[in-house]
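Q: Predict the assembly, please.
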Amino acid sequence: MEYVIQADQLTKKFGSFTAVNAISFSVKKGEIFGFLGANGAGKTTAMRMLTGLSQPTAGQASVAGYDVRTQPEQIKRHIGYMSQKFSLYEDLTVGENIWFFGNIYGLSRSVIKSKTEQLLQELQIGSVKKQLVASLPLGWKQRLAFALASFHNPEIVFLDEPTGGVDPITRREFWEMIYAAADRGTTIFVTTHYMDEAEYCDRVSIMVDGNIAALDTPSGLKDSFEARSMDEVFVKLARG
Amino acid sequence: MKSFFAFVRKEFYHILRDRRTLLILFGMPVVQIILFGYAVTNEFKGADIGVWDQSKDALSTELITRLEASGHFSLAYTYQSRDQVERAFQDAEIKMAVIIPADFGATYYSGRTADIQLITDGTNPNTANTLVNYASAIVQGFQREQTDNRPLPFQISVDSRMVYNPELLSVFMFVPGVMTLILMLVSAMMTSLTIAREKELGTMELLLVSPLSPMTIILGKVTPYILLSLINTVIILAVSYFVFKVPIVGSLWLLLGLSLVFILMALALGILISTRTTTQQSAMMISLIMLMMPTMLLSGFIFPIESMPVILQYLSNIIPAKYFIIMLKDVMLKGSALTFIWNEMVVLLGMTVFFLLLSWKNFSIRLGG
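A: Predicted assembly structure:
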Protein backbone atom coordinates (compact mmCIF):
# COMPACT_ATOMS: atom_id res chain seq x y z
CA MET A 1 0.00 0.00 0.00
CA GLU A 2 1.22 3.46 -0.90
CA TYR A 3 1.03 6.06 1.85
CA VAL A 4 0.88 9.78 1.00
CA ILE A 5 0.86 11.06 4.56
CA GLN A 6 2.90 9.46 7.31
CA ALA A 7 3.11 11.04 10.75
CA ASP A 8 5.38 9.60 13.39
CA GLN A 9 5.25 10.96 16.96
CA LEU A 10 4.36 14.37 15.51
CA THR A 11 4.33 16.94 18.34
CA LYS A 12 3.72 20.66 18.67
CA LYS A 13 4.17 22.58 21.88
CA PHE A 14 3.42 26.23 22.54
CA GLY A 15 5.46 26.97 25.61
CA SER A 16 4.30 24.48 28.23
CA PHE A 17 1.06 23.74 26.40
CA THR A 18 1.12 20.63 24.22
CA ALA A 19 -1.30 21.18 21.36
CA VAL A 20 -0.44 18.01 19.48
CA ASN A 21 0.96 15.15 21.55
CA ALA A 22 3.07 12.66 19.57
CA ILE A 23 0.46 11.55 17.07
CA SER A 24 1.23 8.79 14.56
CA PHE A 25 -0.94 7.80 11.62
CA SER A 26 -0.79 7.09 7.90
CA VAL A 27 -3.09 8.04 5.05
CA LYS A 28 -3.30 5.89 1.92
CA LYS A 29 -3.32 7.22 -1.60
CA GLY A 30 -6.79 7.99 -2.88
CA GLU A 31 -8.29 7.70 0.59
CA ILE A 32 -10.86 10.06 2.09
CA PHE A 33 -9.45 10.58 5.56
CA GLY A 34 -11.69 12.22 8.14
CA PHE A 35 -9.83 14.19 10.80
CA LEU A 36 -12.25 14.79 13.65
CA GLY A 37 -12.07 16.35 17.08
CA ALA A 38 -13.75 18.89 19.28
CA ASN A 39 -12.69 22.52 19.05
CA GLY A 40 -9.26 22.94 20.61
CA ALA A 41 -8.40 19.24 20.33
CA GLY A 42 -5.40 20.10 18.13
CA LYS A 43 -6.79 19.45 14.64
CA THR A 44 -5.84 22.81 13.18
CA THR A 45 -2.34 22.71 14.66
CA ALA A 46 -1.76 19.23 13.25
CA MET A 47 -3.03 20.33 9.88
CA ARG A 48 -0.80 23.41 9.88
CA MET A 49 2.22 21.17 10.42
CA LEU A 50 1.19 18.83 7.61
CA THR A 51 0.69 21.73 5.18
CA GLY A 52 4.11 23.20 5.90
CA LEU A 53 2.81 26.29 7.70
CA SER A 54 4.20 25.35 11.08
CA GLN A 55 7.33 23.50 12.18
CA PRO A 56 6.82 20.49 14.49
CA THR A 57 8.44 20.66 17.94
CA ALA A 58 9.28 16.96 17.78
CA GLY A 59 8.55 13.91 15.66
CA GLN A 60 8.49 13.31 11.93
CA ALA A 61 5.99 13.56 9.15
CA SER A 62 6.11 13.21 5.41
CA VAL A 63 3.50 14.51 3.02
CA ALA A 64 3.48 13.48 -0.64
CA GLY A 65 6.92 12.01 -0.03
CA TYR A 66 8.45 15.21 1.38
CA ASP A 67 9.62 15.92 4.90
CA VAL A 68 7.57 18.60 6.69
CA ARG A 69 10.68 19.83 8.50
CA THR A 70 13.06 20.22 5.61
CA GLN A 71 10.94 20.41 2.48
CA PRO A 72 7.87 22.53 3.24
CA GLU A 73 8.27 24.33 -0.09
CA GLN A 74 8.03 21.04 -1.98
CA ILE A 75 4.99 20.04 0.05
CA LYS A 76 3.23 23.27 -0.86
CA ARG A 77 3.57 22.45 -4.55
CA HIS A 78 1.96 19.05 -4.14
CA ILE A 79 -1.02 19.84 -1.94
CA GLY A 80 -4.21 21.79 -2.30
CA TYR A 81 -5.94 23.61 0.54
CA MET A 82 -9.42 24.90 1.13
CA SER A 83 -10.36 26.73 4.30
CA GLN A 84 -13.68 27.02 6.06
CA LYS A 85 -14.19 30.51 4.64
CA PHE A 86 -14.04 29.20 1.04
CA SER A 87 -11.43 31.95 0.64
CA LEU A 88 -11.96 33.25 -2.85
CA TYR A 89 -11.42 36.85 -3.91
CA GLU A 90 -14.94 38.22 -3.92
CA ASP A 91 -14.07 41.32 -5.91
CA LEU A 92 -12.52 39.24 -8.68
CA THR A 93 -14.58 37.44 -11.31
CA VAL A 94 -14.81 33.66 -11.44
CA GLY A 95 -12.43 33.66 -14.41
CA GLU A 96 -9.94 35.95 -12.65
CA ASN A 97 -9.92 33.79 -9.53
CA ILE A 98 -9.13 30.72 -11.62
CA TRP A 99 -6.47 32.66 -13.54
CA PHE A 100 -4.85 33.90 -10.31
CA PHE A 101 -4.66 30.50 -8.61
CA GLY A 102 -3.37 28.90 -11.79
CA ASN A 103 -0.62 31.48 -11.83
CA ILE A 104 0.49 31.24 -8.22
CA TYR A 105 0.90 27.49 -8.73
CA GLY A 106 3.07 28.25 -11.72
CA LEU A 107 0.85 26.71 -14.40
CA SER A 108 1.49 27.83 -17.96
CA ARG A 109 -0.93 30.06 -19.81
CA SER A 110 -2.13 27.32 -22.16
CA VAL A 111 -2.65 24.85 -19.32
CA ILE A 112 -4.61 27.45 -17.35
CA LYS A 113 -6.75 28.17 -20.39
CA SER A 114 -7.67 24.58 -21.16
CA LYS A 115 -8.18 23.67 -17.51
CA THR A 116 -10.38 26.71 -17.01
CA GLU A 117 -12.73 25.61 -19.80
CA GLN A 118 -12.80 22.10 -18.38
CA LEU A 119 -13.53 23.35 -14.86
CA LEU A 120 -16.29 25.73 -15.95
CA GLN A 121 -17.92 22.90 -17.87
CA GLU A 122 -17.67 20.39 -15.04
CA LEU A 123 -19.16 22.82 -12.53
CA GLN A 124 -21.62 24.09 -15.12
CA ILE A 125 -20.78 27.67 -14.26
CA GLY A 126 -19.59 28.83 -17.69
CA SER A 127 -22.36 31.43 -17.73
CA VAL A 128 -20.94 33.27 -14.71
CA LYS A 129 -17.28 33.30 -15.76
CA LYS A 130 -17.30 37.09 -15.99
CA GLN A 131 -19.31 37.66 -12.81
CA LEU A 132 -17.79 38.72 -9.51
CA VAL A 133 -17.53 35.86 -7.05
CA ALA A 134 -19.40 38.01 -4.52
CA SER A 135 -22.56 37.58 -6.59
CA LEU A 136 -22.50 33.75 -6.54
CA PRO A 137 -24.66 31.62 -4.24
CA LEU A 138 -22.78 30.06 -1.32
CA GLY A 139 -22.90 26.53 -2.75
CA TRP A 140 -21.30 27.65 -6.00
CA LYS A 141 -18.55 29.48 -4.17
CA GLN A 142 -17.86 26.36 -2.16
CA ARG A 143 -17.61 24.13 -5.21
CA LEU A 144 -15.45 26.69 -7.00
CA ALA A 145 -13.16 26.87 -3.96
CA PHE A 146 -12.76 23.10 -4.00
CA ALA A 147 -12.14 23.08 -7.74
CA LEU A 148 -9.42 25.71 -7.26
CA ALA A 149 -7.84 23.76 -4.39
CA SER A 150 -7.40 20.85 -6.79
CA PHE A 151 -6.75 22.95 -9.91
CA HIS A 152 -3.03 22.13 -10.05
CA ASN A 153 -3.66 18.36 -9.69
CA PRO A 154 -2.28 18.06 -6.17
CA GLU A 155 -1.76 14.62 -4.70
CA ILE A 156 -3.53 15.59 -1.50
CA VAL A 157 -6.26 18.15 -0.86
CA PHE A 158 -6.64 19.44 2.69
CA LEU A 159 -10.16 20.59 3.51
CA ASP A 160 -10.59 22.54 6.74
CA GLU A 161 -14.26 22.33 7.71
CA PRO A 162 -15.29 22.81 4.10
CA THR A 163 -19.05 22.61 4.65
CA GLY A 164 -19.63 25.08 7.48
CA GLY A 165 -22.82 27.09 7.11
CA VAL A 166 -24.03 25.25 4.01
CA ASP A 167 -27.44 23.59 3.64
CA PRO A 168 -27.72 19.76 3.54
CA ILE A 169 -28.44 19.50 -0.18
CA THR A 170 -25.43 21.62 -1.07
CA ARG A 171 -23.34 19.57 1.33
CA ARG A 172 -24.41 16.40 -0.46
CA GLU A 173 -23.44 17.84 -3.82
CA PHE A 174 -20.14 18.90 -2.37
CA TRP A 175 -19.40 15.38 -1.15
CA GLU A 176 -20.12 14.06 -4.62
CA MET A 177 -17.29 16.31 -5.82
CA ILE A 178 -15.03 14.91 -3.12
CA TYR A 179 -15.83 11.31 -4.17
CA ALA A 180 -15.15 12.16 -7.81
CA ALA A 181 -11.76 13.62 -6.87
CA ALA A 182 -10.90 10.58 -4.74
CA ASP A 183 -11.86 8.29 -7.63
CA ARG A 184 -9.31 10.10 -9.77
CA GLY A 185 -6.68 9.18 -7.16
CA THR A 186 -6.54 12.42 -5.16
CA THR A 187 -6.19 11.89 -1.44
CA ILE A 188 -8.65 13.89 0.65
CA PHE A 189 -7.77 14.99 4.19
CA VAL A 190 -10.88 16.57 5.68
CA THR A 191 -11.83 18.04 9.04
CA THR A 192 -15.50 18.38 9.88
CA HIS A 193 -17.94 18.87 12.72
CA TYR A 194 -20.76 17.06 10.95
CA MET A 195 -20.92 13.44 12.04
CA ASP A 196 -22.99 12.38 9.05
CA GLU A 197 -20.05 13.52 6.94
CA ALA A 198 -17.73 11.36 9.01
CA GLU A 199 -19.73 8.39 7.76
CA TYR A 200 -18.78 9.31 4.19
CA CYS A 201 -15.05 8.96 4.95
CA ASP A 202 -13.02 5.82 4.25
CA ARG A 203 -11.30 6.11 7.61
CA VAL A 204 -11.73 8.48 10.50
CA SER A 205 -9.41 9.61 13.26
CA ILE A 206 -10.74 11.36 16.34
CA MET A 207 -8.48 13.70 18.29
CA VAL A 208 -9.01 14.33 21.99
CA ASP A 209 -6.70 16.72 23.89
CA GLY A 210 -3.85 16.52 21.39
CA ASN A 211 -3.94 12.72 21.06
CA ILE A 212 -5.51 10.50 18.47
CA ALA A 213 -8.04 8.66 20.60
CA ALA A 214 -9.41 6.42 17.84
CA LEU A 215 -8.65 5.63 14.23
CA ASP A 216 -10.60 3.17 12.07
CA THR A 217 -13.25 2.90 9.38
CA PRO A 218 -16.59 4.38 10.42
CA SER A 219 -18.15 0.91 10.75
CA GLY A 220 -15.12 -0.36 12.67
CA LEU A 221 -15.41 2.55 15.09
CA LYS A 222 -19.11 1.96 15.58
CA ASP A 223 -18.50 -1.71 16.30
CA SER A 224 -15.73 -1.17 18.81
CA PHE A 225 -17.64 1.56 20.65
CA GLU A 226 -20.92 -0.33 20.41
CA ALA A 227 -22.56 2.70 18.90
CA ARG A 228 -25.25 3.04 16.27
CA SER A 229 -23.86 6.24 14.72
CA MET A 230 -20.63 8.21 14.47
CA ASP A 231 -22.35 10.83 16.58
CA GLU A 232 -22.51 8.37 19.46
CA VAL A 233 -18.88 7.33 18.94
CA PHE A 234 -17.81 10.95 19.08
CA VAL A 235 -19.79 11.73 22.22
CA LYS A 236 -18.45 8.63 24.02
CA LEU A 237 -14.90 9.56 23.13
CA ALA A 238 -15.15 13.26 23.83
CA ARG A 239 -16.68 12.60 27.26
CA GLY A 240 -13.82 10.19 27.96
CA MET B 1 8.41 36.02 -11.64
CA LYS B 2 5.22 35.11 -13.47
CA SER B 3 3.39 34.55 -10.22
CA PHE B 4 4.67 37.90 -8.96
CA PHE B 5 3.17 39.76 -11.91
CA ALA B 6 -0.08 37.85 -11.52
CA PHE B 7 -0.09 38.94 -7.88
CA VAL B 8 0.48 42.59 -8.71
CA ARG B 9 -2.27 42.47 -11.33
CA LYS B 10 -4.63 40.95 -8.76
CA GLU B 11 -3.77 43.78 -6.34
CA PHE B 12 -4.64 46.33 -9.01
CA TYR B 13 -8.01 44.65 -9.51
CA HIS B 14 -8.66 45.07 -5.78
CA ILE B 15 -7.65 48.72 -5.82
CA LEU B 16 -9.44 49.72 -9.01
CA ARG B 17 -12.67 47.98 -8.06
CA ASP B 18 -13.02 49.49 -4.64
CA ARG B 19 -14.44 52.97 -4.92
CA ARG B 20 -13.47 53.84 -1.36
CA THR B 21 -9.85 52.89 -1.93
CA LEU B 22 -9.75 54.92 -5.12
CA LEU B 23 -11.24 57.88 -3.36
CA ILE B 24 -8.63 57.75 -0.61
CA LEU B 25 -5.86 57.22 -3.12
CA PHE B 26 -6.62 59.99 -5.54
CA GLY B 27 -9.38 62.16 -4.09
CA MET B 28 -7.67 62.73 -0.75
CA PRO B 29 -4.38 64.23 -1.98
CA VAL B 30 -6.11 66.81 -4.16
CA VAL B 31 -8.73 67.68 -1.55
CA GLN B 32 -6.13 67.97 1.20
CA ILE B 33 -3.76 70.13 -0.73
CA ILE B 34 -6.56 72.45 -1.79
CA LEU B 35 -7.98 72.58 1.72
CA PHE B 36 -4.62 73.38 3.23
CA GLY B 37 -3.77 75.75 0.44
CA TYR B 38 -6.93 77.81 0.59
CA ALA B 39 -8.71 77.26 3.86
CA VAL B 40 -6.06 76.56 6.45
CA THR B 41 -4.00 79.65 6.11
CA ASN B 42 -2.21 82.05 8.40
CA GLU B 43 -2.79 84.97 6.10
CA PHE B 44 -5.66 87.32 6.60
CA LYS B 45 -7.66 88.97 3.97
CA GLY B 46 -10.40 91.32 5.10
CA ALA B 47 -10.58 90.22 8.76
CA ASP B 48 -13.53 91.98 10.38
CA ILE B 49 -12.48 94.60 12.90
CA GLY B 50 -14.37 97.06 15.04
CA VAL B 51 -13.23 100.55 15.99
CA TRP B 52 -14.05 102.68 19.00
CA ASP B 53 -12.67 106.01 17.94
CA GLN B 54 -13.01 108.48 20.82
CA SER B 55 -11.00 111.25 19.28
CA LYS B 56 -12.44 111.32 15.76
CA ASP B 57 -9.76 113.71 14.54
CA ALA B 58 -7.95 113.80 11.21
CA LEU B 59 -5.10 111.58 12.45
CA SER B 60 -7.32 108.80 13.82
CA THR B 61 -9.48 108.79 10.72
CA GLU B 62 -6.43 108.44 8.55
CA LEU B 63 -5.06 105.60 10.68
CA ILE B 64 -8.30 103.68 10.32
CA THR B 65 -8.34 104.25 6.59
CA ARG B 66 -4.77 102.98 6.45
CA LEU B 67 -5.68 99.78 8.31
CA GLU B 68 -8.47 99.14 5.88
CA ALA B 69 -6.43 100.05 2.82
CA SER B 70 -3.95 97.26 3.63
CA GLY B 71 -6.55 94.74 2.54
CA HIS B 72 -5.94 92.65 5.65
CA PHE B 73 -8.72 94.27 7.64
CA SER B 74 -12.18 95.46 6.89
CA LEU B 75 -14.01 97.85 9.15
CA ALA B 76 -17.19 96.07 10.14
CA TYR B 77 -18.45 98.05 13.12
CA THR B 78 -17.87 101.26 14.98
CA TYR B 79 -18.54 101.38 18.69
CA GLN B 80 -19.31 104.04 21.21
CA SER B 81 -18.43 102.36 24.49
CA ARG B 82 -16.28 99.64 26.06
CA ASP B 83 -19.39 97.60 26.73
CA GLN B 84 -20.17 97.48 23.07
CA VAL B 85 -16.65 96.26 22.33
CA GLU B 86 -17.00 93.55 24.95
CA ARG B 87 -20.29 92.39 23.54
CA ALA B 88 -18.86 92.37 20.03
CA PHE B 89 -16.26 89.81 21.11
CA GLN B 90 -18.83 87.70 22.90
CA ASP B 91 -20.98 87.62 19.79
CA ALA B 92 -17.86 86.99 17.69
CA GLU B 93 -18.75 89.91 15.43
CA ILE B 94 -15.15 90.95 15.03
CA LYS B 95 -11.67 89.45 15.23
CA MET B 96 -9.93 92.56 16.53
CA ALA B 97 -10.95 95.83 18.13
CA VAL B 98 -9.00 99.08 17.76
CA ILE B 99 -9.52 101.58 20.54
CA ILE B 100 -8.31 105.10 20.01
CA PRO B 101 -8.26 107.45 23.05
CA ALA B 102 -9.99 110.82 23.01
CA ASP B 103 -6.82 112.88 22.93
CA PHE B 104 -5.06 110.81 20.25
CA GLY B 105 -4.27 113.47 17.69
CA ALA B 106 -3.57 116.16 20.25
CA THR B 107 -1.12 113.98 22.20
CA TYR B 108 0.68 112.95 19.07
CA TYR B 109 1.16 116.43 17.70
CA SER B 110 2.31 117.72 21.07
CA GLY B 111 5.24 115.34 20.74
CA ARG B 112 4.27 112.81 23.37
CA THR B 113 3.56 109.12 22.92
CA ALA B 114 0.08 108.52 21.66
CA ASP B 115 -1.37 105.13 22.58
CA ILE B 116 -3.82 102.99 20.74
CA GLN B 117 -5.14 99.73 22.04
CA LEU B 118 -5.53 96.55 19.99
CA ILE B 119 -7.81 93.89 21.47
CA THR B 120 -7.95 90.40 20.07
CA ASP B 121 -9.68 87.18 21.01
CA GLY B 122 -7.12 85.10 22.93
CA THR B 123 -9.08 81.88 22.60
CA ASN B 124 -7.44 81.57 19.22
CA PRO B 125 -3.83 82.56 19.98
CA ASN B 126 -2.42 82.02 16.50
CA THR B 127 -4.97 84.23 14.88
CA ALA B 128 -4.71 86.82 17.63
CA ASN B 129 -0.94 86.99 17.30
CA THR B 130 -0.97 87.30 13.56
CA LEU B 131 -3.62 90.02 13.62
CA VAL B 132 -1.70 92.08 16.16
CA ASN B 133 1.50 91.70 14.18
CA TYR B 134 -0.16 92.82 10.99
CA ALA B 135 -1.82 95.79 12.66
CA SER B 136 1.36 96.86 14.46
CA ALA B 137 3.28 96.77 11.22
CA ILE B 138 0.70 98.96 9.55
CA VAL B 139 0.66 101.40 12.46
CA GLN B 140 4.44 101.65 12.40
CA GLY B 141 4.44 102.31 8.69
CA PHE B 142 1.83 104.94 9.24
CA GLN B 143 3.91 106.56 11.95
CA ARG B 144 7.02 106.65 9.77
CA GLU B 145 5.11 108.45 7.08
CA GLN B 146 3.77 110.98 9.54
CA THR B 147 7.18 111.67 11.03
CA ASP B 148 8.71 112.22 7.60
CA ASN B 149 7.25 115.67 7.88
CA ARG B 150 8.50 116.15 11.41
CA PRO B 151 11.57 113.94 11.88
CA LEU B 152 12.06 112.51 15.36
CA PRO B 153 15.57 112.26 16.75
CA PHE B 154 15.46 108.55 17.57
CA GLN B 155 14.15 106.15 15.11
CA ILE B 156 15.06 102.59 14.20
CA SER B 157 13.34 101.30 11.22
CA VAL B 158 13.40 97.57 10.66
CA ASP B 159 13.27 96.44 7.10
CA SER B 160 12.80 92.75 7.13
CA ARG B 161 12.71 90.46 4.15
CA MET B 162 11.78 86.80 4.20
CA VAL B 163 13.89 84.86 1.77
CA TYR B 164 12.67 81.76 -0.12
CA ASN B 165 9.10 82.63 0.68
CA PRO B 166 9.06 86.42 0.44
CA GLU B 167 5.31 86.78 0.77
CA LEU B 168 5.20 84.29 3.65
CA LEU B 169 2.63 82.24 1.82
CA SER B 170 1.53 79.48 4.15
CA VAL B 171 0.91 77.12 1.27
CA PHE B 172 4.70 76.84 0.95
CA MET B 173 4.69 75.41 4.44
CA PHE B 174 1.80 73.08 3.85
CA VAL B 175 2.78 71.43 0.60
CA PRO B 176 5.67 69.42 2.09
CA GLY B 177 3.51 68.59 5.10
CA VAL B 178 0.55 67.44 3.07
CA MET B 179 2.82 65.40 0.84
CA THR B 180 4.25 63.67 3.89
CA LEU B 181 0.82 63.00 5.30
CA ILE B 182 -0.55 61.61 2.04
CA LEU B 183 2.43 59.34 1.43
CA MET B 184 2.17 58.05 4.97
CA LEU B 185 -1.54 57.44 4.52
CA VAL B 186 -1.31 55.74 1.15
CA SER B 187 1.82 53.74 1.82
CA ALA B 188 1.52 52.75 5.45
CA MET B 189 -2.19 52.70 6.13
CA MET B 190 -3.32 51.26 2.81
CA THR B 191 -0.67 48.54 2.95
CA SER B 192 -1.57 47.49 6.46
CA LEU B 193 -5.25 47.54 5.47
CA THR B 194 -4.79 45.42 2.38
CA ILE B 195 -2.77 42.77 4.24
CA ALA B 196 -5.22 42.77 7.14
CA ARG B 197 -8.02 42.32 4.63
CA GLU B 198 -6.50 39.11 3.27
CA LYS B 199 -6.19 37.82 6.80
CA GLU B 200 -9.76 38.74 7.60
CA LEU B 201 -11.13 37.01 4.49
CA GLY B 202 -8.96 33.94 4.98
CA THR B 203 -7.21 34.32 1.65
CA MET B 204 -3.88 34.93 3.38
CA GLU B 205 -3.90 31.30 4.54
CA LEU B 206 -4.42 30.22 0.97
CA LEU B 207 -1.49 32.28 -0.20
CA LEU B 208 0.74 30.94 2.56
CA VAL B 209 -0.13 27.33 1.72
CA SER B 210 0.64 28.03 -1.94
CA PRO B 211 4.19 27.79 -3.30
CA LEU B 212 4.46 31.61 -3.26
CA SER B 213 7.38 32.67 -1.09
CA PRO B 214 6.61 35.14 1.71
CA MET B 215 8.86 37.61 -0.11
CA THR B 216 6.72 37.37 -3.24
CA ILE B 217 3.55 37.88 -1.23
CA ILE B 218 4.91 40.99 0.47
CA LEU B 219 6.46 42.44 -2.68
CA GLY B 220 3.33 41.70 -4.66
CA LYS B 221 1.28 43.49 -2.02
CA VAL B 222 3.41 46.63 -1.83
CA THR B 223 4.48 47.11 -5.43
CA PRO B 224 1.17 48.64 -6.55
CA TYR B 225 1.27 51.01 -3.61
CA ILE B 226 4.81 52.12 -4.44
CA LEU B 227 3.64 53.00 -7.94
CA LEU B 228 0.48 54.73 -6.70
CA SER B 229 2.43 56.69 -4.08
CA LEU B 230 4.84 57.94 -6.73
CA ILE B 231 1.92 58.97 -8.92
CA ASN B 232 0.47 60.77 -5.91
CA THR B 233 3.75 62.59 -5.34
CA VAL B 234 3.65 63.86 -8.90
CA ILE B 235 -0.02 64.89 -8.56
CA ILE B 236 0.66 66.85 -5.36
CA LEU B 237 3.70 68.55 -6.86
CA ALA B 238 1.75 69.41 -9.99
CA VAL B 239 -1.22 70.85 -8.06
CA SER B 240 1.03 72.94 -5.84
CA TYR B 241 3.11 74.14 -8.79
CA PHE B 242 0.28 75.00 -11.15
CA VAL B 243 -2.49 75.99 -8.74
CA PHE B 244 -0.59 77.55 -5.87
CA LYS B 245 2.53 78.60 -7.77
CA VAL B 246 4.78 76.94 -5.22
CA PRO B 247 8.21 77.01 -6.84
CA ILE B 248 10.17 73.81 -7.36
CA VAL B 249 13.66 75.21 -7.29
CA GLY B 250 15.60 72.00 -6.76
CA SER B 251 15.93 68.90 -8.87
CA LEU B 252 12.69 67.09 -9.58
CA TRP B 253 14.53 63.78 -9.66
CA LEU B 254 16.00 64.40 -6.23
CA LEU B 255 12.48 65.14 -4.95
CA LEU B 256 11.15 61.90 -6.40
CA GLY B 257 14.13 59.99 -5.05
CA LEU B 258 13.53 61.41 -1.57
CA SER B 259 9.88 60.51 -1.80
CA LEU B 260 10.74 56.96 -2.81
CA VAL B 261 12.90 56.51 0.29
CA PHE B 262 10.10 57.85 2.48
CA ILE B 263 7.55 55.64 0.70
CA LEU B 264 9.65 52.54 1.38
CA MET B 265 9.91 53.53 5.03
CA ALA B 266 6.15 53.98 5.27
CA LEU B 267 5.52 50.65 3.53
CA ALA B 268 7.75 48.92 6.03
CA LEU B 269 5.72 50.49 8.83
CA GLY B 270 2.53 49.34 7.13
CA ILE B 271 3.79 45.76 6.93
CA LEU B 272 4.89 45.94 10.54
CA ILE B 273 1.41 47.03 11.63
CA SER B 274 -0.23 44.31 9.57
CA THR B 275 1.84 41.60 11.27
CA ARG B 276 0.37 42.75 14.57
CA THR B 277 -3.26 42.94 13.54
CA THR B 278 -5.83 40.55 12.16
CA THR B 279 -8.62 42.92 11.24
CA GLN B 280 -8.84 45.92 8.98
CA GLN B 281 -10.42 47.94 11.72
CA SER B 282 -7.56 47.55 14.16
CA ALA B 283 -5.05 48.11 11.36
CA MET B 284 -6.79 51.38 10.63
CA MET B 285 -6.87 52.49 14.27
CA ILE B 286 -3.22 51.67 14.85
CA SER B 287 -2.22 53.44 11.65
CA LEU B 288 -4.12 56.55 12.61
CA ILE B 289 -2.87 56.71 16.17
CA MET B 290 0.69 55.48 15.75
CA LEU B 291 1.45 57.06 12.39
CA MET B 292 -0.85 59.87 11.43
CA MET B 293 -0.98 61.68 14.77
CA PRO B 294 2.79 61.92 15.30
CA THR B 295 3.25 62.83 11.65
CA MET B 296 0.80 65.68 12.00
CA LEU B 297 1.79 66.92 15.42
CA LEU B 298 5.47 66.18 15.96
CA SER B 299 7.03 66.51 12.53
CA GLY B 300 7.07 70.29 12.42
CA PHE B 301 4.30 70.22 9.85
CA ILE B 302 1.78 72.16 11.90
CA PHE B 303 3.65 73.18 15.05
CA PRO B 304 7.22 74.41 14.81
CA ILE B 305 9.55 71.98 16.56
CA GLU B 306 11.64 74.83 18.02
CA SER B 307 8.72 76.01 20.13
CA MET B 308 7.84 72.60 21.57
CA PRO B 309 8.67 71.51 25.13
CA VAL B 310 12.14 69.94 25.27
CA ILE B 311 10.76 66.41 25.73
CA LEU B 312 8.68 66.68 22.60
CA GLN B 313 11.65 68.09 20.74
CA TYR B 314 13.62 64.95 21.57
CA LEU B 315 10.63 62.84 20.64
CA SER B 316 10.39 64.56 17.28
CA ASN B 317 13.82 63.15 16.45
CA ILE B 318 12.39 59.68 16.04
CA ILE B 319 9.60 60.83 13.75
CA PRO B 320 10.70 59.97 10.21
CA ALA B 321 8.37 62.58 8.74
CA LYS B 322 10.43 65.34 10.39
CA TYR B 323 13.48 64.57 8.26
CA PHE B 324 11.42 64.14 5.14
CA ILE B 325 9.75 67.53 5.59
CA ILE B 326 13.06 69.28 6.22
CA MET B 327 14.53 67.78 3.07
CA LEU B 328 11.43 68.49 1.00
CA LYS B 329 11.48 72.15 1.99
CA ASP B 330 15.18 72.46 1.32
CA VAL B 331 15.00 70.91 -2.09
CA MET B 332 11.71 72.45 -3.20
CA LEU B 333 12.09 75.99 -1.93
CA LYS B 334 15.85 76.52 -1.62
CA GLY B 335 17.00 74.25 -4.40
CA SER B 336 19.42 72.39 -2.11
CA ALA B 337 21.42 69.59 -3.65
CA LEU B 338 21.89 66.20 -2.04
CA THR B 339 25.19 67.36 -0.49
CA PHE B 340 23.31 69.86 1.69
CA ILE B 341 20.77 67.43 3.03
CA TRP B 342 22.86 64.28 3.41
CA ASN B 343 22.56 64.46 7.19
CA GLU B 344 18.80 64.07 7.11
CA MET B 345 19.09 61.62 4.24
CA VAL B 346 21.32 59.30 6.25
CA VAL B 347 18.88 59.34 9.18
CA LEU B 348 15.88 58.63 6.95
CA LEU B 349 17.70 55.87 5.06
CA GLY B 350 18.75 54.34 8.37
CA MET B 351 15.16 54.37 9.60
CA THR B 352 13.97 52.85 6.33
CA VAL B 353 16.43 49.97 6.54
CA PHE B 354 15.63 49.45 10.21
CA PHE B 355 11.88 49.24 9.68
CA LEU B 356 12.25 47.04 6.59
CA LEU B 357 14.35 44.55 8.54
CA LEU B 358 12.04 44.69 11.55
CA SER B 359 8.91 44.11 9.50
CA TRP B 360 10.58 41.31 7.55
CA LYS B 361 11.59 39.60 10.78
CA ASN B 362 8.11 40.00 12.23
CA PHE B 363 6.47 38.63 9.12
CA SER B 364 8.70 35.55 9.18
CA ILE B 365 8.01 34.92 12.86
CA ARG B 366 4.29 35.01 12.21
CA LEU B 367 4.72 32.38 9.52
CA GLY B 368 6.73 30.08 11.76
CA GLY B 369 4.19 30.26 14.59
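The two ends of chain A are 33 Å apart (CA to CA). Chain A touches chain B through 29 residues (CB under 8 Å).
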